[in-house]
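hi! just following up on the protien thing from before. the input was this:
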Amino acid sequence: MHRVNSIVSSLVVCFSHWKSVSLLLGLRVSMASSASLLSSAESSTARLSMHDVFLSFRGPDTRRSITSELYKRLDEQRGIKTFMDDRDLEVGDAISPTLLKAIEESRFAIVVLSPNYASSTWCLEELAKICECMKDQNRILPLFYNVEPSNVRYRKRSFAKAFDKHESSGRHTSEQLERWSDALNKVASFTGWHTKNYK
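and the predicted 3d structure came back as:
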């Protein structure tokens, strides 16, 4: 729990200052030039958005732990408008238009990448949509929750098993699978938070 609180505190500090572009992106990324970050952030925050943050997560993994704590600290305590879906879809359920619209209307996304994230095609569709709508990496913030970034990026361990299952099910086209894989690869290459860095 202490580790969860440490990560949440770090994220909350970042998003509580999202109006201050240089501070927000300075906490998130250190390798890019400040001029480039400022320019990209200004263009993204200029959009009319209903939500400041969209939370993407695998419900059974994190809903009752880090994700619910993030929502509470961001939305309820800091007034940062945060979208958190309150349902866990079953296998075969379609992602709702409302959820896709919420992604389109969000300034930033926090993606909580947990061990079973890729087992949900709903999560993978969310992630692909996030990458489509938020092409600038400074708007997507990954949180590697008990997973290694390399396992996400190169589809190893639980991510490999999840994709093997999706491929063998016969329910998904090769284009869908490639789209999901590309989204995971992209997000895992971004600088983010990792649970191993917090004790």
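Residues 21-39, 41-46 have pLDDT under 50 and may be disordered.
The longest helix spans residues 59-77.
cheers
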